[in-house]
Structure formats: C-alpha cells, structure tokens
Amino acid sequence: MRTNDAQMLVLCALTDGPLHGYAINAAIEQVSGHRLGPGSLYGALARLEAKQLVKPLEGKGRQRPVCLTPAGRELLEQEAHSMARLSGRVFESAVPDEISYLDRLAATDTARSYKSVMLHALDARPGQTVLDLGCGPGTDLSTLAKAVSPSGRVIGIDSSQKMVEQARRRTEGLSAVEVQLGDIHTLPLEDGSIDRARTERVLQHAADPARALAEARRVLRPGGRLVMGEPDWDSLTIDYPDIEVSRAYTRHVTDKVVRNGVIGRQLARLAPDAGFAVLAVVPVTSVFRDVQAADQVLGLQRNTERAVSAGYLSALASQRWLDDLATGPFFAAVTLYVVVAEATS
User: Fold this and answer.
1) Is the distance from CB of 140 to CB of 202 less than 8 angstroms?
2) What is the pLDDT of residues 32-63, one digit of tens each?
3) What is the distance between the alpha carbons of residues 17 and 1, in angstroms, rounded to a whole number?
4) More exposed terminus of the chain, fewer Cβ within 10 Å: N or C?
5) Do residues 44 and 7 make contact, with C-beta atoms less than 8 angstroms apart?
6) 245 close to 321: Cβ distance less than 8 angstroms
C-alpha cells in the first residue's frame, strides 16, 4: 500500500485517535493539501474496515467515528519503515564534504553546460590578468590559465583556508596561477589591476552582493569584463501531483536554505548600480530526469527534512513527497543566469 493511496491517507489521519468522516477529511486536507471525494473517502473506510484495519466506535447521531485497530497501526509502522529504507537507498542523508560536493557538481553535465557558456563569455586572452572570485578548490583555475597562456596571470581568491590550500595543491605546477585567502567584499588587489573577473555560484552566499560587485568594479580596469553565473532558486520546479507541496519545498529552499535565493534574477539590476554595463543575460536551465542525479545536486531528503522542521511541510506530506520522488518518473529543473557585464569608465 503506497502513502499516496486513499486508504493510507485515512490510516495516517487516524494516527492520533478516533475521528468521524468529516474530521478525517479535514485531517487529510491539512497534511496533503486536498480532500478526498465522498466516494473515495467512504470507499476507503469500507475497505479498511473489511480488512480489519479500522473499526467503528459508538457515536452520536449521524457521526460515526472510527479508530485504528492494532493491525492498522502495525501496517502504518511497516509502511514507515519501508519508506525509510527506500529513502535510504535513493537519497543521500549525510551532508557531503564541501570540496567533495563542489567536485561532484563540477563533473555533472549541468555544470559543464553553464561553465562553457561562462568561459566563452569571459573571452580571456593571452597576457591578461583574470580573477576568479570565490575560486573554491581551484576547479576552474587551470582552464583559465590555459586561456591567458604563461604570459598572463590568474588569481583565485577564496575566504576558506581549506579551499585555498586545496586550490594551491591542484595548481602547484601552473606558474601563471596565484591563490590568495581573501574576502570578495574587500579584495586585496589594486584598483584597475584586473582585465577579466568571474564569479560562479558565489554571490548566492555573499553577505552583501552589492558590495561584492562594487569591489569587482574597483579592481577591474575600465572596459574590463565580469561574468557571473548565479542560480535563481525560485525557478526550481519538481514535478509532483500536489503542486502546493512542490511550491512549499521551493519556497523553503529560496527563503531558508540559500542566503540570496533569487540573486540570479537580480544581477542585471544590481550590476549597473556598481558601475557596470550589462552586455548579456543568458539563461541556462538544468533538467534532471534521474532522481539520484538530482539528489546529488539538490540534497532532496536533507532539505525536505529541514522544510518539515521549518514548518513549510508536514511530516506526512514530506514522506509522501519523498516516496513519490523515489519511485515515480522524475522531473526537476532550475535556471542559472549567466550575466555578462563590462566596467564603465
């Protein structure tokens, strides 16, 4: 019996005690966002009673409360354990190491797609100085070094000592690459010393994106180029029969999980205020058809659990959601915007 079955919805509604028909439907609506039709509700009750999973109690007038039998409660517990085992096989429960996560993301077709767009837009040339703002473990530094050749210079800056050390190890043999510990809000660089700059999925976490953009403008020479690749998490869509549950999940990610959840759409407005002319905005939409591939990027179970704790989803709705994502055809999509900007004089 699946948790999106009418009978299972009725059983779940009776978990906290006896209810009559109207109250059962109200409880179902509270956790799932919709009511069962009268035929579905009373048909489910009749089938459950025939299976001895619920039993009627004495009531007043037309109200006829029912309660779970021991067999019904046992079935619920079995279903919960079954779904937990299924989720454990499909979804990643532990938070991955940050470097491992970034390496995993960089290896996906999704990342390769928008990185290619960003590299082309950056148009880095031999002899230029390129700045990678928030370079992480050095994922893109070698690619940038090839673009500027040995006569150029690549500077990676990150606020994490762990990331800086890893980036230095990975670029140890590249004379054109220098990695520094620093804050993108106060860059340790001279005015007008940079020809090209990039930031990828960094401004979504920045304490003050506007200040970071102003710093990027300060260190870029007039006519220098900044290429930004940032997601708009409000664009995250995950197919699920109850659209309100999907919307609640996306709202939680946008509101609580990512500091600047809609930065992707804001960049074309913020950049001119920092002294840039916006040359282009290129949307890159990532589509996921495999639930485990999506989970590697989106952390579906972890963020669903957070959504429950934050009050965006009920426990029952979240379990039905994960059950459906794990077993049914899967579709999800999210858009990242590549914004190309030029430093004005």
Assistant:
1) no
2) 557 888 888 888 888 898 998 889 988 666 67
3) 21
4) C
5) yes
6) yes
